[in-house]
């Protein structure tokens, strides 16, 4: 199949996974739990909490499949622009309805790929307290199950070079949860149906994060 202009490259995402493995295991000590819960084939959405700047690269390096992440356009600056595109990542403008990003993200799912999303939109407490409706839309429209992922790093500030990063060589837990369907089975994509799906998603993601924290002691 010929890759459409601007479409994320599956081969690029595989290269990105290799880079992520090298960097994340070289700089930190990832402990991966439940990776077997990620479907081996077919479309899937990995919904990740976002409290550290390494959450995306960490998932790219620890997920059992290459991941195409929706990343804010502000990150695509200078040499990072061609690099991120080259490793199959998707640029999204969060200030508007970015139809190009939507098309490319749905294309990832239609091609049976893994789409990575930060449902909270921006880095914050990483507790899934504020979800955007985009996750529900992609899950229902793309017919893809959602796998919740909790990335839990050290909260210690000692040893940090940058405040938004866990201390180098510290343990970072990546906990994958059970896959679930966001829709109600009707296939409806109305605003009401997506709002209801968003509530269901938030409940499942929050429950997974709470369980992951209890299990890891984070």
UniProtKB/TrEMBL annotation:
SUPFAM superfamilies according to UniProt: Glycerol-3-phosphate (1)-acyltransferase
Listed InterPro entries: Plipid/glycerol_acylTrfase
Classification via CDD domains: LPLAT_AGPAT-like
Domain Phospholipid/glycerol acyltransferase: 44-154
Keyword Acyltransferase annotated: yes
UniProt cross-references to Pfam families, sorted A to Z: Acyltransferase
Keyword tags: Acyltransferase, Transferase
Entry keyword annotation includes Cytoplasm: no
Coiled coil: none
GO molecular function: acyltransferase activity
Entry protein name: Lysophospholipid acyltransferase family protein
């Amino acid at each position: 199949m010929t890759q459409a202009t601007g479409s994320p490259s599956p081969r690029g995402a595989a290269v990105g996974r290799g880079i992520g493995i090298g960097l994340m295991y070289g700089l930190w000590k990832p402990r991966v739990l439940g990776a077997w819960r990620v479907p081996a084939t077919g479309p899937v959405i990995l919904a990740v909490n976002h409290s550290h700047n390494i959450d995306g690269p960490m998932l790219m390096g620890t997920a059992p499949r290459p991941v195409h992440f929706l990343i804010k356009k502000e990150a695509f600056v200078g040499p990072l622009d061609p690099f991120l595109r080259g490793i199959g990542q998707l640029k999204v403008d969060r200030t508007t309805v970015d139809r190009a990003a939507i098309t490319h993200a749905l294309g990832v799912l239609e091609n049976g790929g893994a789409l990575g999303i930060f449902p909270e939109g921006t880095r914050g407490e990483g507790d899934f307290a504020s979800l955007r409706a985009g996750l529900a839309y992609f899950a229902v429209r793309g017919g893809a199950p959602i796998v919740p992922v909790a990335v839990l790093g050290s909260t210690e500030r000692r040893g940090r070079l940058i405040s938004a990063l866990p201390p180098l060589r510290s343990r970072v837990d990546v906990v994958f949860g059970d896959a679930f369907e966001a829709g109600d089975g009707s296939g409806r994509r109305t605003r009401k149906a997506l709002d209801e799906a968003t509530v269901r998603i938030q409940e499942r993601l929050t429950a997974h994060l709470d369980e992951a924290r209890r299990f890891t002691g984070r």
